[in-house]
Amino acid sequence: MRKIFFIMFVVMFVSTTTILAQNVDQNTTQTTEERETLNFKDSIKSLIKSTAFGGLIKETEEDIAKEQMSKNKRLENTYYSKIKELQSVPAPLWQNIIMILVGLLLVWLAISKGFEPLLLIPIGVGGILANVPIANIAATPVVLAVEQIVFTAETGGFLGQIYSFGVESGLFPLFIFIGVGAMTDFGPLIANPKTALLGAAAQVGIFGTVFGAILLSKFVPVIDFTLSEAASIGIIGGADGPTAIFLASRLAPELLGAIAVAAYSYMALVPIIQPPIMKALTTESERNIVMKQLRPVSKREKIIFPLVVILLVAFLLPDAAPLIGALMFGNLIRESGVTDRLSKTAQNEFINIVTILLGLAVGGKLAADKFLRFETIGILLLGLVAFAMGTAGGVLLAKLMNALSKEKINPLIGAAGVSAVPMAARVVNKVGLESNSQNFLLMHAMGPNVSGVIGSAVAAGVLLAILG
Fold it and tell me: Would you place residue 23 in the very low, low, confident or very high pLDDT band (cuts 50, 70, 90)?
């Protein structure tokens, strides 16, 4: 209970400071006519066009004109967002002080409570540095082109340079996925392929939250999320920080700081958020179900698996290929058995260096003028809803599979479908042991857990194909 009250205090603190710092800018609020819209038919068409079957759809002149208008609109939005960033007025000192305190809070949570310390410490310190007045440590470089001569007008601060190089380009999340792939054993998923369905079901939190963000924008006057911003918020439900950063950097870079903090904060709170939901949706007898030992998986299967996944994704959903490709490449150098040096480097030095840079760059987006908004409260609340929906989705599908199949599975493993690897699987094992001290679910939970990583990356690819 003390932990729960502590988390409530943290959320109330951030929410209160956000409300105090909010300045509603009427000029930036989109009108109904300006708000982007997308119907079901257009979504399906965009999704099909982004696959290998895209050539089967004959484009009309109207389709070509719409696509060109959409590209021009994105370029225009990018241009004006850059201009707005250059013309932004420094936040008042008291707002900087609030954000410095928030940065200190993140560092304290990481050190004292052990909440995702590898990322919350760099993010917290980055947030502190970004709010040092006058220093402009988080300012991004300004590159201009005059008469076809390109030059750097402003070099920016060191956090801004790191952000431009690794986050804005999307490189750091992909580098993280290489390291994650090198540390991941897909054996449990290969041994019991049907658990992949549980990882897919857990992604319901992503798409459910997209609609939630749209509804929140419609009924709460001070919150105004576009479709792209709603999609970026929804990906928090996948409980995958790199994927959330990858998608947000492309669809809603202005919300990157809040989305990253929410994603990693809720990942750190897996042991607190998930057990009550798991217990509420299952009976004591269901939690006592003992599963059979998984079959051994051969080395050949483990080598073929990443190659098959890469080919399938490249054929069916190219927009997800960067994330899935990086993940599977990392896994291949692990399982091949002939690249031990590369595998060890990816698992240790490589991912550690990228983690430091990624955390600092994300922390640099916690500047007061970007973070202290009413939208931040919406992101924190929607992120929690997304995470809860993802957990519930996996558990409920497991119960449905039990109703339709003779071979029973413990529905608790469905909660591991969120891709907080391996923390979610450990939580499942712990809850299972509470009901039956001889019921070890860790390896069974790793199946949906690693499939959740793939699922969240695929979901990000789908959103990019439709909105990107």
Answer: very low
- CB hemisphere CA count around 171 (13 angstroms): 11
Q: What pLDDT is stored for residue 392 in this prediction?
A: 94
Distance (Å, whole) CA 238 – CA 449: 11
pTM, entire model: 0.84
CA gap 448, 451 in Å, rounded: 5
d(CA 237, CA 385) in angstroms, rounded, equals 8
Measured distance CA(118)–CA(114) in Å, rounded = 9
Handedness of CA 56, 57, 61, 67 (dihedral sign): negative
Is residue 468 a contact partner of residue 341, using CB atoms and an 8 Å limit? no
The domain ranges of the chain are 169-467
> Any alpha helices (H) in 22-90, and if so which ranges?
40-49, 61-87
| Mean pLDDT, residues 81-101 | 79
User: Considering only CA atoms, which of 236, 272, 280, 260 is closest in space to residue 418?
Assistant: 236
Q: How many residues does the chain have?
A: 468
CA 330, distance to chain mean position in Å, is 19
For residue 108 the two structure tokens come to: 């304290």
Contact 274, 281 (CB under 8 A): no
Q: Which residues contact 467 (CB under 8 A, 6 or more apart)?
A: 38, 227, 228, 231, 251
Q: Measured in whole angstroms, how far is the alpha carbon of residue 127 from the centre of its chain?
A: 19
**Average pLDDT of every residue of the chain:** 83
pLDDT of residue 86: 64
